Amino acid sequence: MRNSISRLAASIGLGVSLLAGSLIAPAVAQAEGEIRIAEQFGIVYLLLNVVRDQHLIEKHGKAQGIDIKVDWTQLSGGSAVNDALLSGSIDIAGAGVGPLLTIWDRTHGRQNVKAVASLGNFPYYLVSNNPKVKTIADFTEKDRIALPAVGVSVQSRFLQYAAAKQWGDKEYARLDKYTLAVPHPDASAALLAGGTELNAHFSNPPFQDQVLANKDVHVVLDTYELLGPNSPTVLFATEKFRNDNPKTYKAFVDALAEAADFAQHDKGAAADTYIRVTKAKIDRAALLKIIDNPQYEFSVTPKNTYPLADFMYRVGAIKHKPESWKDYFFQDEKPLQGS
């Protein structure tokens, strides 16, 4: 069993590495009127689904007198997304706050990568099918926890935050040795199938909700209980792209704001958009029940991101200490009022 899941993780890791490697190939700098966007998996990327489905970037570009060509790609894990952004292969990166803070720190004073906007507020669940695992303190060397990227993804940082809270800052990486990088769809399938050492998954919606429909799967950790309501996933870009493409950048920001208003106020249409764009095999009624959860908020305004930033600096995961959330978010024409 151990060999089978190891092969699964290795093959997935190789695929992501090859994909990221292809993206790292030298890329031609993009001119005003072109934008390349990388997203990942799940409902947390619904705003991008709306932007894509309704051609909102193109719409707001035309309002400024330019035609914008939009290219979309899908990756898995903050490491692959960050590599693609730094290679110049994408212009807008979609990933967790963890990868954002890593790349913000790494590019401080150089490319100056910062966040453009939040994608909303959602609880993330660490789930398990092992009845012996009630809390994170119950994990042993026999367990394996799937997450998008080991040590970098926001799920990995949430797990480290929880470990530091449980055992102290010096033990923040205590559970890292039990983690594997596996994309959400594959991890969910493996968890439901059983029969491997992968018996836990730090997930996001709708995958966490789908596996929790199985009576053998339960919640081990809820990030809202850990940190309070927060924005786990964000969009970020380099300072150069923002400065060199002001009209394209503004069209993107305006498109996001319109998408957030649409998704927050018409959940039925938002559910239809998600199914149409992602081609997800999920029942519409079940999906609507998930996104109609009052804990979910589709908004571009970041909420409660700073505690994770402060933690990452405290344990040495980033070298530069942000004084506030504004240090790692761009402040545009309409400044965000976040935290």
TrEMBL record:
Q: Does the keyword Signal apply?
A: yes
UniProt xrefs under Gene3D superfamilies = Periplasmic binding protein-like II
Indicate whether Nucleotidyltransferase appears among the record's keywords. no
Signal peptide range: 1-31
Annotated keywords = Signal
Q: PANTHER family, per this entry?
A: ABC TRANSPORTER SUBSTRATE-BINDING PROTEIN (PTHR30024:SF2), ALIPHATIC SULFONATES-BINDING PROTEIN-RELATED (PTHR30024)
User: What is the official name of this protein in its record?
Assistant: ABC transporter substrate-binding protein
Origin species, per record, is Pseudomonas brassicae
